Amino acid sequence: xxxxxxxxxxxxVGKTAVMMALLAYWQRYCSSRRLGVMxxxxxxxxxxxxxxxxxxxxxxxxxxxxxxxxxxxLDQSATEITPxxxxxLPAIATAKDGRQIELELVWQQIQQLQQRDFxxxxxxxxxxxxxxxxxxxxxxxxxxxxxxxxxxxxxxGAVAHAVANVxxxxxxxxxxxxIILNAVQPCCAQDWANWAPIDLIQSLTRKPVxxxxxxxxxLADLNKLAQVAAEWELERLLPGLEELLLQPS
Length: 249
Hints:
By secondary structure, this protein is an alpha/beta fold. It has one domain: P-loop containing nucleotide triphosphate hydrolases (Rossmann fold), CATH 3.40.50.300. The chain contains twelve helices and eight strands. Helix 1 (15-29) packs across helix 10 and helix 7 (158-171) packs parallel to helix 9 (198-205). The longest helix is centred in the first third of the chain and has 15 residues, at 15-29. The protein is globular and about 50 Å long.
């Protein structure tokens, strides 16, 4: 499938930053190819931070779709990128408003996007985040057959969070390609070794670490974002990428 779901262990672990890095790489090296992006559900917040989820360059509170349109040349509207905007947890919003989240409509929009060369989807919250009282993001990833990468923040508890979320992915039969470690805060090499030792994470989860994202103070630097993504195992994240690069425009 020409789709990658960028999921996380929780909110504010850097899913948007990872998506931006992949977008920056695509824009630099595959600009003639059509890429679709979507974050089906967005809950705007005013506590965004660098290398976390949805930073704002001017300090204003903005949603992910507005951020992506502002940073990148996307031929999609904000509504197409984020069809559902909620003020609280989807499951709670459903109970409060008495209406069902229109996941079928979202799936139809994803299928339309899949006519493009590749599609990047950003999951809402973590793999265990509830969409309904019976469904989590992990369930949706399995139900929609979405190849997934798990973003794990480099901080105390990273190993335990990685193990727990991979276990959930396995239980839900998610096609989990691997893990990206993201420094959500400034940290030195010793912090990485203490908090997120790659060998230990790979041994316990039996999933490969496909990339590491350093803490970036300025997520508006598209050149730096592209350089970071270039160090990842992109062929495993974006299957067919090398073939696309070799094809004439």
